[in-house]
Amino acid sequence: MVQTTMDLVQAAKSVITEITIQQANDMLSSGSIAMDVRELLEYETGHIPSARHISRGMLEFMISNHPDFEDKNASIVVYCKSGGRSALAAATLQQLGFTNVHSMMGGFDVWSEGTDIPPQTQA
Fold first, then answer.
1. Does residue 33 lie in a domain region?
2. Could you confirm whether 80 is annotated as catalytic?
3. N or C: which terminus of the chain has fewer CB atoms within 10 Å of its end residue's CB?
4. Number of folded domains in the chain?
């Protein structure tokens, strides 16, 4: 059976932990690492302060060489534009052995608006 992108995102969301913007802000204030998995141009246009950038397309290849992600038990808040790529990235990180990974619902779009309610139609 052929799956759509949304099927893959929904499958990822069934095995990961999603958190609200407020929960993400609380975790980041307590020392969690923000991981931006958007493309470099998106990151350069604006990102969460202190976020580390690894694009979703390069995650599997770059994560093992990134000094900030040596501790697979470290708390990581993953985000993208709206929550789809971060869900896929969080599932991948779990498959790679990371144990404390969270995907931020609504992504950077909602975070930058300062609201905690993600759009229901976006992924």
1. yes
2. yes
3. N
4. 1
Q: Is residue 2 part of a domain?
A: no
Q: Are strands 101-104 and 76-79 parallel, antiparallel or unpaired?
A: parallel
For the entire predicted model, the pTM comes to 0.90
Residue 80 CB burial class (10 angstroms; 0-12, 13-18, ≥19) = buried
Cα dihedral across residues 11, 55, 101, 123: positive or negative = negative
Q: Residue 10: inside a domain, yes or no?
A: no
Q: Decide if 45 is inside a domain.
A: yes
Q: What's the chain's length in residues?
A: 123
Q: Tens digits of per-residue pLDDT, 50-102?
A: 999 999 999 999 999 999 999 999 999 999 999 999 999 999 999 999 999 99
The CATH code of the domain that includes 30 is: 3.40.250.10
